[in-house]
């Protein structure tokens, strides 16, 4: 019973959060403490905080339920992530994000990949918070004047968000704990930077840069998925792909883009749980997992990718032509998913029905996308100041109807029912097996190599070991030094 106690606590926290939100349905400020000089320590539960907090709580609870061996420190990581998401001050968001990262490393036993982009993102967020404090007199999301958000501060916030959502080359090797805690923090920053600017970014180039970065990350993930050597390697690429989708959706600067950001965060968390718990050892499990991460309708990934592309069509700030390469990247994902079915199954034994359960959750969230949008995503867009940006979005039980083209969930549900009936009728038919794996769809991406060995710097290995270690006092001192430096020379 002790093994499932952390999962019960996480689920209870998610239910409590939902009850509090349903009771208030507005901004709820808690424990405001004035520290002087315009600095205050307070928590604000608003639509953005609820949407992102629900993602991290449900994702963490799913990991604790399906992987009872997870450490109790995952609960501490979730708690710190909630502090970062619901903080009403950008500076304290950075501090809480750093605390969450420390618990993430502890929960994952040191991590499975390079986490320096996450530390860099924390420092960038702290830099932006101190700069906003100096320029605007406060770093509060609801108190800082919109004129204080200059291009430099907004750029720092966006860079921090890019690192936190996992849009970095080493992201796919992060532990699952990092994928259910850090992307919601990055997603909240992507939405709250619009809150700081009263629904606008201070420079048009920021929209373009964010869209290009998102497209690049999405395209590279699709390329790596097309040349994956195993089914698990293919599934891992879905995480940075959804991170790129999150950035592409936020770059639109319209209401539909903010809605797509929320759906992309939920898809990221679902994919992280799927990758961590579903071992593609059986071909049927691989078929379901590939369908979920490839974005086949009416799954959650389909909703996130489709809305991100549609948001570009409805925006007058993004690049219109970016829709074409984004659609091609999605098409490449479809072909990569078909090729992944021919790869040799590998991985530890998992529950026989686990892939079916997660696939059903993805389908239900896709069919109920209109309700999720009306209850969670659209209020988050309004809190970000984007409710009046772009065409009006109609969402409800029947589905969603953006100006760029609606899609009824009830019709998709009917098609799905027919497909399930057809599959049940052919239940005795075995899935075809491939005699050998299909060749890669594209050549492997070459890794740049210097024609001569790079000169070694004295003390560099020791410095890398020092900075990569889990030393909270060291990072706290670095953040304080950065704060002093930025105070002396603000952006």
> What is the share of helical residues?
55-70%
Beta content: under 5%
What is the number of independent domains? 2
The total of beta strands comes to 5
Ends: how far apart? Answer: 53 Å
Give the neighbour order of strands across the main sheet. Answer: 3-4-5
Defining key terms:
2 domains; 491 residues; mainly alpha; 3-stranded antiparallel beta sheet; single chain; 63% helix; 19 helices; two-stranded antiparallel ribbon
Layout of helices and strands:
Elements: H1 5-24, E1 28-36, E2 39-45, H2 47-66, H3 73-86, H4 90-107, H5 116-136, H6 151-165, H7 176-196, H8 204-226, H9 231-236, H10 238-250, H11 255-277, H12 283-294, H13 300-314, H14 323-340, H15 354-367, H16 369-383, E3 394-396, E4 399-401, E5 407-408, H17 409-425, H18 460-468, H19 472-488
Antiparallel strand pairs: 1-2, 3-4, 4-5
């Amino acid at each position: 019973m002790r093994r499932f106690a952390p999962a019960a606590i996480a689920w209870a926290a998610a239910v409590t959060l939902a009850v509090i939100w349903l009771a208030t349905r507005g901004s709820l400020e808690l424990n405001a403490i004035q520290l002087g000089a315009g600095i205050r320590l307070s928590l604000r539960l608003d639509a953005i905080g609820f949407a992102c907090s629900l993602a991290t709580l449900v994702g963490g609870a799913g990991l604790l339920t399906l992987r009872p061996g997870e450490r109790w420190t995952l609960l501490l990581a979730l708690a710190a992530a909630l502090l970062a998401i619901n903080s009403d001050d950008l500076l304290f968001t950075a501090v809480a994000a750093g605390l969450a990262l420390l618990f993430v490393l502890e929960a994952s036993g040191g991590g499975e990949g390079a986490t320096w982009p996450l530390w860099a993102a924390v420092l960038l967020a702290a830099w932006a918070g101190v700069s906003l404090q100096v320029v605007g007199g406060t770093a509060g999301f609801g108190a800082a004047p919109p004129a204080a958000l200059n291009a430099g501060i907004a750029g720092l916030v966006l860079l921090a968000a890019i690192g936190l959502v996992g849009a970095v080359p080493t992201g796919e090797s992060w532990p699952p704990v990092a994928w259910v805690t850090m992307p919601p923090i990055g997603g909240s920053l992507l939405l709250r930077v619009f809150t700081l600017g009263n629904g606008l970014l201070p420079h048009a180039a920021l929209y373009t840069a964010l869209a290009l970065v998102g497209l690049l990350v999405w395209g590279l993930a699709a390329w790596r998925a097309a040349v994956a050597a195993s089914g698990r390697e293919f599934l891992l690429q879905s995480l940075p792909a959804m991170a790129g989708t999150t950035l592409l959706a936020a770059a639109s600067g319209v209401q539909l883009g903010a809605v797509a950001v929320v759906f992309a965060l939920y898809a990221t968390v679902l994919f992280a749980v799927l990758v961590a718990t579903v071992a593609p050892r059986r071909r049927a499990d691989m078929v379901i997992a590939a369908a979920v991460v490839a974005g086949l309708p009416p799954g959650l990934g389909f909703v996130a990718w489709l809305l991100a592309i549609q948001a570009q069509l409805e925006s007058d700030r993004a690049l219109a032509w970016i829709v074409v390469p984004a659609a091609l990247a999605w098409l490449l994902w479809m072909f990569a998913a078909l090729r992944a079915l021919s790869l040799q199954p590998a991985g530890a034994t998992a529950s026989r029905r686990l892939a079916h359960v997660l696939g059903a959750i993805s389908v239900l969230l896709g069919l109920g996308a209109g309700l999720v949008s009306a209850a969670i995503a659209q209020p988050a867009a309004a809190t970000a100041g984007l409710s009046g940006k772009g065409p009006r979005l109609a969402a409800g039980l029947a589905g969603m109807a953006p100006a760029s083209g609606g899609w009824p969930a009830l019709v998709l549900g009917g098609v799905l029912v027919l497909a399930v009936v057809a599959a049940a009728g052919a239940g005795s038919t075995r899935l075809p097996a491939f005699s050998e794996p299909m060749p890669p769809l594209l050549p492997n991406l070459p890794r740049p190599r210097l024609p001569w060995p790079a000169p070694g710097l004295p003390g560099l290995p020791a410095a890398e070991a020092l900075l990569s270690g889990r030393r909270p006092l060291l990072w706290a001192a670095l953040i304080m030094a950065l704060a002093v430096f930025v105070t002396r020379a603000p952006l």
